[in-house]
Design brief:
Helix content: 40-55%
Order of helices and strands: EHEHEHEEHEHHEHHEHHH
Keywords: Cell membrane, Glycosyltransferase, Membrane, Transferase, Transmembrane, Transmembrane helix
Radius of gyration: 17 Å
CATH topology: Spore Coat Polysaccharide Biosynthesis Protein SpsA, Chain A
CATH class: Alpha Beta
Number of helices: 11
Organism: Funiculus sociatus GB2-A5
Subcellular location: Cell membrane
Protein name: 4,4'-diaponeurosporenoate glycosyltransferase
Structural class: alpha/beta
Pathway: Carotenoid biosynthesis; staphyloxanthin biosynthesis; staphyloxanthin from farnesyl diphosphate: step 4/5
Largest sheet: 8 strands, mixed
Shape: globular
Strand order of the largest sheet: 3-2-1-4-7-6-8-5
Length: about 250
């Protein structure tokens, strides 16, 4: 049986959640469970989630809004040995579970994520996607070189991050006080337990933020936020440059 619990934090994701849940229903092998943790959606997100509710797909309501809090709540309810954190607007390959289990079969690996290809209805954001791929490597090399050579790679939300449940709990999970770059913060904690690996497989994430900002502005904001984060600027300050676009 699969060991993977997939956790999806949601907030007003009615436009994409149904597609994502349909994709998860055809995974081979299937996930042990899918936990949808909603932060108070005001659209049809919760209704859509309940339509898919089953013995392996559960809907959880979070009293507190915020990805870190919602993902921690999902992790607390999860029964799998492995946790996979998935954004509602991200498409995954059918063998997602197998790739995750194979990656963590290496005991020297504490966590991992995928290569994110940013796509929209009419275009693929090759330039932005390439930068995000490279950022996984150059950000830790520049700002945490001692950890880079220990195996640190900085993963971000749309890369479908995964790790062992025990390592997640022992690392303290996501910091609820961090409103942005919470996955990167978790990488800093997980690398104390093993390498972080970006697997050579692609997931597709919505380009909705880039579509609103434009490629140049989006890349500039990503660079600015990443640079300030590397210098230790608080996530609370950085969040104001990364407004909600839904």
């Amino acid at each position: 049986m699969s060991r993977v619990s997939i956790i999806i934090p949601t907030l007003n994701e009615a436009k994409c959640l149904e597609r994502t849940l349909r994709q998860l229903s055809v995974l081979e092998p299937t996930a042990k469970e899918v936990l949808i943790v909603d932060g108070g959606s005001e659209d049809e997100t919760v209704a859509i989630a309940h339509r898919f509710s089953s013995s392996t797909i559960r809907v959880i309501s979070s009293d507190t809004r915020g990805r870190s809090v919602q993902m921690n709540q999902g992790a607390a309810a999860a029964t799998g040995d492995i946790l996979c954190f998935l954004h509602a607007d991200t498409s995954v390959p059918d063998d997602l579970v197998a790739v995750i289990e194979q990656t963590l079969a290496d005991k020297t690996v504490a966590g991992g994520g995928f290569i994110s290809l940013m796509t929209g209805e009419q275009t693929t954001r090759w330039g932005v996607s390439l930068h995000n791929y490279l950022k996984t490597y150059y950000a830790p090399l520049i700002f945490r070189p001692h950890l880079f050579f220990k195996g640190l790679r900085l993963l971000f939300g749309d890369q479908v991050m995964f790790c062992r449940h025990a390592d997640f709990l022992e690392s303290g999970g996501f910091d609820p006080a961090i409103p942005i770059l919470e996955e990167a913060d978790l990488c800093l904690k997980l690398v104390q337990r093993g390498k972080i690996r970006q697997v050579n497989r692609v997931v597709q994430s919505s380009d909705r933020r880039v579509a609103k900002w434009g490629s140049l502005k989006a890349t500039a904001i990503y660079l600015y936020i990443g640079f300030l984060w590397g210098l230790g600027v608080s996530g609370t300050y950085l969040k104001k440059f990364y407004e909600d676009i839904r």
